[in-house]
Amino acid sequence: MFFLSFPLFSQTESFTVTASVEEEEVSAVFEMIKIPGRNYFVGKTEVTCEVYEIVMGENPSSYAEGNFPVNTVNWYDCIVFCNRLSLLLGKTPVYSVGDSSNPDDWDYSPHGGSSISADVVQDLNADGFRLLTVEEWEFAAKGGQAYKYSGSGNIDQVAWFKGNSEYKSHEAGTKTANGYGLYDMSGNVWEWCWDRLKKDSNYYRIHKGGSSASARELCEIGFSGHHYGSRYQPCYSYYTFGFRIGRTDR
Question: What is the pLDDT of residue 4?
Fold first, then answer.
């Protein structure tokens, strides 16, 4: 199911994913927000456990379920999820490995700590779901505002971080949204992005936003790049690692 609505801050689209679990139909809804002046949509929240489990058939998270952000996913898991979600909802997949955009052909088992052996290629002209680039992520996180954190200069208003979270993630969307209506772009779980740390290397991929176990400075919008806390090997997962999806407006 797909429909459009028009809230004050931007255009919104809503999707429903459905699957049969033990002969019973289960479904979950997620929303995407069009970033003003740009040609892409961004997930209103981080990908939740319930949406992830419907698409992937399992929830790899540590101590999280339902409307909590999925965690313990590596970069490759996110790529597989995006293409499976695109195929499920009739969108053109963004990613390909070899000559195939079907993750079943990639010789990769999610959540096992392994890697996809060949290069992952992205097609930004496709209308399917994908990871954000760092530039897209930072623009969306600012929300048209000039705050240090996404939505406020007061981190407690907008983020679950180590100063208020008891070192555990919380349900998506329970803090204040930023100016574009996006939640938790500071704190809760780190969000994998598409970008490599270095253009000529696949060794590290960047993630953004900090987590429930992060110091406040790691939750700043501008924090990334060469600091140890913002890049990891793409096969690495941890209980503070999640992701948010985007989609090119086509």
Answer: 32
